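Appendix C: a fully annotated inverse folding record. The material below is reproduced so that readers can follow the format used throughout the book. The structure is listed first as tokens, followed by the designed sequence.
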């Protein structure tokens, strides 16, 4: 199915007030990867980031090759079998009809190569020395983290910077990773706010925020799939960016957003950058029940 990506499809804050939560949902057959009318934009974004940042967006340990090859084979089968309207095999290439581009089926680096077929970022976690570690990734749209800081590190260290994460989630994630079965993949959501429409936003604040600053709702649709042969866990991250104004057309979306913001512990709010965005958020808080659109200049 080819989705329309011009209106918000995922608003995780409507399902869960707490930012730190598992929020797992069983993944139905054929629903692993979503394809929409912006696939070509994500493809170009990945090529640009790779040319600009090289190994900062794509890294892999030598030992992760079996898992990378397994994920690429599974992804190819999924796209050709479950999304024939969007993908077709054309000799040695995979033609992405939805984005109007072709990419080789075989590449020197299988994970990076297959990541160009889809909009999602791809991450592989493998159990090493008793802990799941990040052993390979194609990561062109990260939020609040960078691949270089997390590469080859275990899950616990990856989440060290997030205030309250270990107390709320680490034991549950450890149990989940141990018991995830290939036949029971799951999805989950995550969200954030930002003052730009960049898929790869800067970690550090660029400019001061005021009441006229345009804000964007960043939503992530994540999936976790156990690869049956290698035993690795494939983690896909699809990022959606929408102007905050788009939430105004969805009943209850803005009030629920402010309820979630108000529920955040101060340290987590600072980590998520909510305190920095306060001047622009104040405009939306005052008019969250107003049916008329709030107009803000879109900064590019």
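Designed amino acids, in order:
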């Amino acid at each position: 199915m080819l989705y329309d990506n011009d209106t918000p499809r995922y608003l995780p804050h409507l399902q869960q007030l707490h930012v730190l939560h598992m929020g797992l949902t069983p993944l139905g057959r054929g629903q692993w990867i979503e394809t929409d009318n912006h696939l070509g934009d994500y493809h170009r974004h990945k090529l640009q980031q790779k040319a600009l940042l090289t190994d900062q967006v794509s890294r892999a340990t030598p030992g992760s090759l079996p898992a990378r090859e397994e994920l690429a084979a599974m992804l190819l089968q999924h796209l050709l079998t479950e999304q024939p309207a969007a993908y077709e095999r054309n000799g040695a290439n995979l033609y992405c009809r939805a984005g109007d581009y072709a990419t080789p089926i075989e590449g020197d680096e299988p994970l990076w190569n297959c990541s160009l077929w889809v909009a999602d970022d791809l991450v592989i976690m493998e159990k090493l020395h008793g802990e799941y570690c990040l052993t390979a990734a194609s990561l062109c749209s990260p939020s609040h983290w960078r691949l270089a800081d997390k590469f080859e590190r275990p899950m616990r260290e990856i989440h060290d910077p997030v205030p309250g994460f270990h107390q709320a989630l680490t034991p549950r994630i450890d149990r989940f990773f141990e018991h995830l079965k290939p036949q029971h993949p799951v999805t989950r959501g995550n969200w954030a706010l930002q003052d730009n429409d960049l898929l790869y936003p800067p970690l550090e604040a660029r400019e001061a925020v005021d009441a006229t600053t345009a804000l964007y709702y960043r939503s992530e649709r994540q999936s976790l799939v156990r690869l049956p042969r290698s035993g690795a866990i494939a983690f896909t991250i699809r990022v959606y960016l929408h102007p905050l104004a788009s939430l105004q057309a969805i009943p209850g979306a803005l009030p629920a957003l402010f309820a979630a913001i108000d529920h955040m512990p101060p340290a987590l709010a600072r980590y998520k950058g909510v305190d920095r965005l306060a001047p622009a958020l104040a405009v939306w808080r005052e008019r969250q029940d107003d049916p008329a659109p709030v107009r803000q200049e879109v900064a590019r």
